[in-house]
Design a protein that fits this description.
Chain lengths: 202, 265
């Protein structure tokens, strides 16, 4: 079948369809919205933002978060507690923890989690850099804030092995009931950990 | 597949990947329908009623709705979480090995209740035993039998003669033992010790309860593992990823002079 759509249109559809969670139908809809959309500046703004994404971002040389300046804002901020390090899987986890406003220390982004089944090993993550950073630094505490998934747990257990000789205290985020969660629907692992980690009421 | 729009089954999560905004795509091995794929909508949100029930290696009761391509998880209730697998890296890696092998050997939507039983037994075993190496070999041999790749350990695959328990040859390509004198039938033939032949036969023909107290020398463990890994890699036409990860953990433990990760080796 001959291609009915003009090449630039088809090209954009194909590229949208490469994004996660976007199928061919959504890709066409997005493309046609841009093509004849009422918001005239959208396409130009989007193009400029995409270009800047590639040109102006890089990894922070200390924490490996995505940043415009190296070192990143968090690493350069002198008011932050430099004795605590929080290890997370992804840059978006930093955003989530920052939103909680409950943490003032530094971060280290691993860019993934270990997965023996998918073949993701320690060399695919920023683990060597983390070990080096903890060896060099003066951290009192390292918080392992990986996801509460099997891969996140495996990563934390692996880091525990690798960091066994360090002086810093290793901690792991607590597990328990989520806000607005029903006990009735909570799985037994979460419940048993919530019970084990129960707190005195003051 | 059942005709009803919704159906129930007990299943183990073999693999899962992120899908869309907050969904998870699950590969399940189910008791009633074999290997199937299903979407657990919203399962990545902590508030989801499904989250804790659809994690890797968990055994749960599912209520699924038939979809065009994928089924949709409407309810999931945990039966057995195999909690120790989540608290120990070596146990977790062996569990990954168990599910990776099953996922690669089991075809889609083919019911095999014995295979399901083998899978649940193996996960329960790795949550409990310290005899990791023996449990892994036992699982491999029984898995191979159930999926139709059973290595022939009692007759020479070239001459058909009964194998006597002495030093022999093992051919991954021809699928079993070769008696001395016929080894030229396969250029890549592997020498195998009489002790290894004996253990392989013993494991292949017996249930775990009968073999679990077996204690083997480290060298014999290594020999058995090498033969079976070569056999598995030949039939899968690729390496097993979790086995490579396991090897890395062993090497690192050795580098640090800490105790071996598998205590009985």
């Amino acid at each position: 079948m001959a291609n009915i759509l003009p090449q630039p249109v088809q090209q954009l559809i194909n590229n949208f369809a490469r994004l996660p969670g976007v199928g061919p139908k959504t890709a066409s809809r997005l493309t046609f919205y841009l093509l004849r959309g009422t918001d005239k500046s959208l396409a130009a703004d989007l193009a400029a933002a995409l270009l800047e994404l590639g040109e102006k971002t890089r990894y922070c040389s200390r924490c490996f978060n995505i940043t415009e300046n190296d070192p990143c804002e968090v690493c350069a901020d002198e008011s932050r507690d430099e004795t605590v390090l929080c290890v997370v899987e992804e840059p978006l986890d930093v955003v989530a923890i920052e939103r909680s406003r409950a943490y003032t220390g530094l971060y280290h982004v691993l860019h993934g989690a270990l997965s023996p089944i998918e073949g993701i090993g320690p060399d695919d993550l920023r683990i060597e850099e983390l070990v080096q950073r903890i060896d060099d630094g003066a951290f009192n505490e390292v918080i392992l804030a990986t996801n509460a998934t099997l891969e996140g747990d495996s990563t934390a257990l692996y880091l525990q092995r690798r960091l066994a000789g360090s002086n810093a205290r290793l901690t792991r985020l607590a597990r328990g009931l989520s806000v607005g969660g029903d006990i009735e629907y909570t799985d037994e692992i979460t419940l048993s950990r919530a019970l084990n980690g129960r707190q005195e009421m003051h | 597949m059942p005709r009803e729009r919704t159906f129930r089954t007990e299943a183990i999560v073999l693999r899962r990947s992120d899908f869309g905004e907050a969904d998870r795509l699950l590969t399940l091995y189910s008791r009633e329908y074999g290997k199937i794929r299903a979407i657990a909508k919203g399962a990545r949100k902590p508030q989801s009623r499904k989250t804790g029930h659809v994690e890797l290696f968990m055994r749960a009761n599912y209520l699924l709705a038939q979809g065009r391509n994928l089924h949709i998880v409407t309810q999931a209730e945990l039966v057995e979480p195999y909690a120790p697998l989540r608290e120990d890296l070596v146990r977790a890696t062996y569990a990954a090995y168990v599910t990776e092998l099953l996922d690669k050997f089991a075809p889609d939507e083919e019911v095999n209740r014995t295979l399901y039983q083998l899978l649940t037994d193996a996960l329960a075993r790795f949550a409990l035993t310290d005899n990791f190496l023996l449990a892994a070999r036992h699982y491999e041999l029984h898995l191979l039998t159930l999926v139709g790749f059973q290595p022939q350990l009692f007759r020479c695959v070239v001459s058909g003669a009964t194998i006597v328990e002495e030093d022999q040859f093992f051919s991954v390509e021809l699928g079993g033992l070769i008696a001395p004198g016929h080894e030229r039938a396969d250029r890549n033939v592997r020498p195998i010790s009489a002790a290894a032949v004996k253990v392989l036969r013993y494991l292949q023909t017996r249930q775990w309860g009968a073999v679990e107290s077996l204690q083997l020398r480290t060298a014999l463990h290594r020999e058995l593992e090498n033969h079976l890994h070569a056999y598995l890699a030949f039939h899968l036409e690729r390496q097993v990823k979790s086995a490579e990860f396991l090897q890395r953990l062993r090497n690192e433990a050795q580098l640090r002079d800490s105790s071996p990760i598998e205590p009985n080796s």
